[in-house]
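Try it yourself: sequence plus flavin-adenine dinucleotide, in.
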Amino acid sequence: MGYGIAIVGSGPSGLYMAEELLKHFPEASIDIIDALPTPYGLVRGGIAPDHQTTKAVVRAFERTFARRNVRFLGNVEVGRDLSYEELKAAYDLVVLSIGAARDRRLGIPGEDTPGVYGAAAFVGWYNGHPQHRDLSPLLDGEALAVVGNGNVALDVVRVVAKTPAELSDSDIAAHAQRALAAARFRDLYVIGRRRPLDASFTPLELAEFGQLERCGVVVHDARLTNDVVPETSEKELKVKLRNLEILRRFAASGVDGKPCRVHFVFQAAPVEVLGGERVRALVLERTRVEEGRAVRTGERFELPVDVVVAAIGYTTVPFPGVPFDDSRGVIANDEGYVEPGVYAAGWCKHGPRGVVGTNRTDAQQLTKRILTGLESTPPPGGKPGGVLIDRLLSRRAVRVVDFARWQRIDAAEVACAAPGKPREKFVTIQEMLEIE
Ligand SMILES: Cc1cc2nc3c(=O)[nH]c(=O)nc-3n(C[C@H](O)[C@H](O)[C@H](O)COP(=O)(O)OP(=O)(O)OC[C@H]3O[C@@H](n4cnc5c(N)ncnc54)[C@H](O)[C@@H]3O)c2cc1C
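Structure, out:
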């Protein structure tokens, strides 16, 4: 008899964990539980709709779900439909891979002014995440600022900057496609507290700004010098120097008479959002960088903008009973170990860092860790497993979406896509559940 394993969260970390665990426990029965009727976490709801090749990783994930001993229990939210205690009672091993879906706040006055959004909400809106589809961001202004210097900030600005034609082969949600087609932004700002050298952009994503149809790039007051901190690894150094080279190229080439500009503003910390009924401006303070940290200088300036998107990181949304580390915003864990029989993987373990593939390496390491802790895990078969969970969900009339049903939802989305679009996403759970 094999272990009964629950993996909560069907994003990359959950799916890589399933694969790794099956290598060592081929007889295990694995239930992959997700709050949404759709699997794949941020691959569906986070990765930019115009980056379809990145989403091709789902082909590998489909093979995991095709295994005889792996089930998908979609539309089942732990904390609502099942409790943490019930999971621990049912399964020999529980892996929590619930990601980090809550935006970190800027923590400045005016942050709740209409027109300020977190990146998780804004990205979720254009990606058709059911939780964010009603965001209706205010897009009728001329200027938008994204605070943050990672790839998520670049994604947001690029999606807003693109023309309808440039998005025509993406899987952007129809409501967002319409709203962005009607938007008339002329200035899009990417704001970082530190130097160009400190940005965590990847060169491929940065270079895309040189190819936008209606937007040129302006690089502001940037010290495009390579005074790299000595402890930077060779790999990191290569990325940073490549970013600098791209920014230098942008700075030299100007905006070419295009009607819209993407501005890179470095060494500027957000201080306050101005505006009453809606955003009027973002106040920034110049910084200098000391030992890798941004130190404010007291010199302030106002950026007249209509929308502010904060792309400064995420925290995990815990469910009742799960040990939580408030200071780090992740499930409390020691290299993945939470408590006997319970482990955390991916973004809910170490925070919002790394690309899809990083979760694979992480899953390999965590599986090793689980194997070394097996002496303290009771032998397999002592717990009822999915049978108990099925009974509880049935008693609670939860409409569980299994993998075959997801495949029908998937096929229906593909079938109703406009020409050129890979799919037209359903954006309400109700619509998804109507597909029998
Ligand atoms: C905007 C954005 C763009 C990105 N773009 C790229 C990119 O281009 N390339 C790249 O390689 N990486 C990209 N990444 C990073 C990549 O998406 C992450 O590395 C990866 O998704 C993290 O995987 P995860 O499984 O930890 O979390 P997630 O992918 O967030 O999966 C978590 C899953 O848990 C489920 N869940 C949460 N709470 C519960 C609950 N209580 N009960 C049941 N289920 C629950 C969620 O519904 C979700 O399906 C991007 C990330 C973001 C935010």
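One thing you can check immediately is this: The chain has a mean pLDDT of 95.
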